[in-house]
Amino acid sequence: MTRLFAAGLLVLWGCLAAMAQTLPPSDPPQAGISTTSRAPLQQLLQSQSDLITASSRRTIQPAIDEIAQSGLDDVQTLLQLWQGKKLVMRKSDGLFFRGDTRGDSRYELTDLDSGAVIGAVDKADLKPIKPNSGVRALIGTALVRFQLNDPVAAIRRAAVTSIGRDPSATALEPLRASTLSEADDDLRALKQRQERLLTMRFDIDAQARVAAIEDMSGDLGVDVRAALNPLLDTTLQIYPVGAPATGNIAAERRIGQDFTEADAYAVLVAAGFAEAPLQRDDIKSALAAHIVDGRVAGIPLAQLSDASVRRNAYDDLAVAGLVRAGPTEQEMADTVARYRFADTYNEASSAVTDAAESALARSNRKVAFHKAADLALDAISLASIYFLAAIGLAITFGVMGVINMAHGEFIMMGAYTGYVIQLVIPDHTLSILVAIPAAFAVTFGAGIAMERLVIRWLYNRPLETLLATFGISIALQQLAKNIFGTQARPLTAPGWLDGAWTLNDVVSISYIRIAIFVLALGFLALLLFIIRRTRLGLETRAVTQNRSMAASMGINPDRVNMLTFGLGSGIAGIAGVAIGLFAKVTSELGNDYIVQSFMTVVVGGVGSIWGTLAGAVMIGFSQKGIEWLNPSNTLAAQTYMIVLIIIFIQFRPRGIVALRGRAAGD
């Protein structure tokens, strides 16, 4: 029986021992093997504990550098936790943990070295480490060296971009190392470019910097010029006459040529090498402080309104030792003559500054050339807009001799037609494709109606025609206000027209402008085909050259006038759709283009398609050129352009391409 009892106890003891090994402890340990200050990350954090808990941008950099350069495996994770405000310190022992919130009052702690979950702790027992935006930015800079080799390409690209925004010498070596192992060709090229830029500024080897500068010489990138300019920064140095100049001298300043004697003396005063000259306020204050019985130095106050008398009174006080005398003009000139002034490069290596100066000069030359190309693209774009706006007017004016002041309102009608089409068809691409013929149809019909109801009764009466069309333009503007209101209406371009075609950092043009240019070329080809290859074109040319002779040959001038006026109005409507893609669609839209349209027609030659094209090009280039010379005042630029056109007309009154026949005789 005793043996049986003993065996039972032995079995019970074994079961209890097995259960004890499988059950978790009732209370988590406060500090296990990995949660002591002997763990690598914990030891590193403890050494910088004061700086980390203070979390001041002015003092945190040494702690960040010490952690980032420690070489420990989990440094990147630690920095990310710190930056993400997930680092906490336990108040009882000063140890750091990852802290994840659990409710409003508790944190779940995770060991930084082992990754083991320690347990949930009350918020009152912890000190959250919450870096401000400045500290987080510094941590982000330190993280870049790790992110350069991240498996995710987007993170690597973001790291290179971050280096470009905040270049530093510490990023040079990590960037070079990551470039060698970069598998993505585009990213490797981006890293190599950034490495060259950092080498230019921060490499300790002057020859390597010169080589990097020569590699990037002539590059149009803004980042290259931003890297070269600091290398050529100078500081004004002052040397006694006869003393040897030290440092990397950029140029010596000469008195009377590079700056005035007064400026030179002011520099000496600021440097503490000369006594400050007397100022008017100094003299007034000194005189006021020495008034005795209504006099200053024996001079009555009533006489001190004269500047020379005030100076004499001050000199008397100076002789008496009551105020400082101040330097005379001769003394200031003698003081300036005892010193030399030179601009000295902040960069010590003359080889680096010479290379930088040469590279920057080459880049500036290329930038100037490409700016001229960019200006030419802008001028061509503007010319295409003026051509679209004016070609309809050129046709009607040339064939009929009618000055249509309502031409701008046909442009406005085309833009509003596009807006209405987009209300019906939400797809922007399809709506624009529908809006172009719809705008032509609407304005073509409006033009024919206007010609039949008003214009045909006023032929050969130009003044009445001008007044009538001007009244119609006002009526159309008011009608548009009544229908659409006074607020600008959106005419949205398709998504594929967003953005710009960018050749480099200098030359770019929006896709909308390119589309308008293509549209203008298309209409140029279409009009040339109509004028030269169709019966309407043949009759139009005949009526333009000699109306009576065309009528005697069986051509109906009234029908030609009607169709021509409708065609010109329809083209204006299409121009309105194109202009509305980048301009505000309002009832006054046509006012912005009617003057330019008339100038284009007059300069190019009345009734000539090629003349209208030449006039648009001339006005577009002239306006952009004047705006480039005077960019701060576009109104003045337009005024100068009008003056140039008036001068041009004095020498060529029939325009660039003069017509022959009846129109030329008229």
Label this structure with key terms.
alpha+beta, 5-stranded antiparallel β-sheet, 27 helices, 12 strands
Mean pLDDT score: 84
- Give me the count of strands: 12
- Overall geometric form: extended
Q: Provide a count of the helices.
A: 27
The span between the termini is 144 Å
Computed CA radius of gyration, to the nearest angstrom? 41 Å
Beta-strand level of the residues, as a percent range?
Answer: 5-15%
The assigned structural class equals alpha+beta
Helix share bin: 55-70%
Low-confidence stretches: 15-34
Report the biggest beta sheet as strand number plus sense, adding barrel if it closes: 5 strands, antiparallel
Sequence of strands across the biggest β-sheet: 4-3-2-1-5
In words, what does this structure look like?
The longest helix has 51 residues, at 350-400. The chain has helices spanning 2-22, 40-47, 49-54, 61-68, 75-83, 133-147, 153-165, 172-180, 185-202, 206-215, 222-228, 261-271, 280-289, 307-319, 329-337, 350-400, 407-424, 428-453, 462-484, 511-533, 535-545, 547-552, 557-580, 591-604, 609-629, 634-651, 662-665, and strands spanning 87-90, 96-102, 106-110, 117-122, 126-129, 234-240, 249-253, 295-296, 299-300, 339-345, 500-502, 508-510. The strands form four sheets. Strands 4-3-2-1-5 form a five-stranded antiparallel beta sheet. By secondary structure, it is α+β, with helices and mostly antiparallel strands. It is built from 27 helices and twelve strands. Helix 8 packs antiparallel against helix 9, helix 9 (185-202) packs across helix 10 and helix 12 (261-271) crosses helix 15 (329-337).
